[in-house]
Design goal:
mainly alpha, 4 helices, 91% helix, 0% strand
Length: 148
């Protein structure tokens, strides 16, 4: 190998390491946003569940049960908002990763179809997250169903 080949290889390795660090940072930031969202959601569910549980102990008739239904509706709305926020975090992280990968593909003058393949893979990830979202809503609504 010539000195030029070693320099080219070293530059490529440096760029790959920098790209890996940027990807790691993007993924970590996405995980931090998701963790923060989950902690806030868990705190709200615990507070709401405690309030509804206190109300449930006072139920003596079907009319009492029907009277608490409006108290359960906000919990369901919060579950839907939580799912929306999860999707927003996933989409934002996907967009940031896609931009980074597109820059990397352009720098190395790789196959022009590669970014499209990357976007297709990320789209599959997003669709999977969207399919999982209803299960997340059901899991979030489970304490409300138990309380009801």
């Amino acid at each position: 190998m010539t000195l030029n080949s070693f320099e080219t290889l070293a530059a490529a390795n440096k760029q790959a390491a920098e790209a890996f660090m940027q990807m790691s940072k993007i993924c970590l930031e996405g995980a931090e946003r998701l963790l923060s969202l989950n902690l806030a959601a868990m705190r709200e569910v615990m507070e709401d569940s405690a309030a509804v549980a206190g109300t449930l102990t006072d139920i003596k008739s079907m009319q009492d049960f029907q009277a608490i239904q409006p108290d359960v509706a906000p919990m369901m709305e919060k579950a839907v908002a939580y799912t929306r926020n999860v999707q927003e975090i996933a989409t934002r992280t996907q967009d940031e990763l896609s931009k980074l990968m597109n820059v990397q593909f352009a720098q190395f003058d790789l196959d022009p179809q590669a970014p499209a393949a990357w976007n297709a893979a990320m789209e599959m990830f997003t669709k999977g997250a969207q399919k999982a979202a209803p299960a997340t809503v059901k899991a979030a609504a489970k304490p409300a169903r138990k309380a009801a």
